[in-house]
Amino acid sequence: MNTPASREGNLIRYIIYFIGYLMAAGTVKLVTINLPIRLWDLILFALISLMVLLFFIYRFNREQRFFDRSFSGSWLGNFGMTISLTLVVTALRIGVSWLQAYGKVKPYSFQTLYLQHESVKMYWFLVVALGIILPILQEFLITGFLFNYAFRRNTMFTAVLGIVTSGILFSLLNWQMSLPLLVINAVFGALFAWSYLYTQTLWMPVYLAVVNGIILMIMI
Q1: More confident residue, 175 or 113
Q2: Shortest CA distance to 210 belongs to which of 93, 71, 70?
């Protein structure tokens, strides 16, 4: 029960982490429902998001001592790979925005929400919440903890299955009522998961997810 080798313990821990993420995502929904934005809603979002983020970081770092990694690197250790993946994410995100501009892909739900309630406060809240906070929490949940618990075997099949699963979960957590957007999100999620396996550090997918989120908000 006390180590990531315990299936029952893993399931219980993952459910707790998932509930924590839902709490943070729920406060985002609360803020956007009660428009115009209210100060107390922002304070609640900040407190819950910070609490969940610190809990995720603490638990993930604590669990790493149970793993014997043959390679462990920094996301800045391979500068060329970091720049290359940054350019790939940027190009893909610009490409999606181009398709949306020409009506080939539907806008994201939060884009529609922002256009309906356009304001400076709303924009910066979306940048912080959807561009930074939630992407970080998502990568801990569907990449870091997921691979630690469910995809620990060092085989190609396990790696591919983990990447695909992570991509699907990323798409589900960023649910959109559009099949093309669901597929696009799954591709981004799979790319982030691959970067985790390649670098063996969670900070690479976290960095890429934040880059993706911020660019998405900039092009809102």
Answers
A1: 175
A2: 93
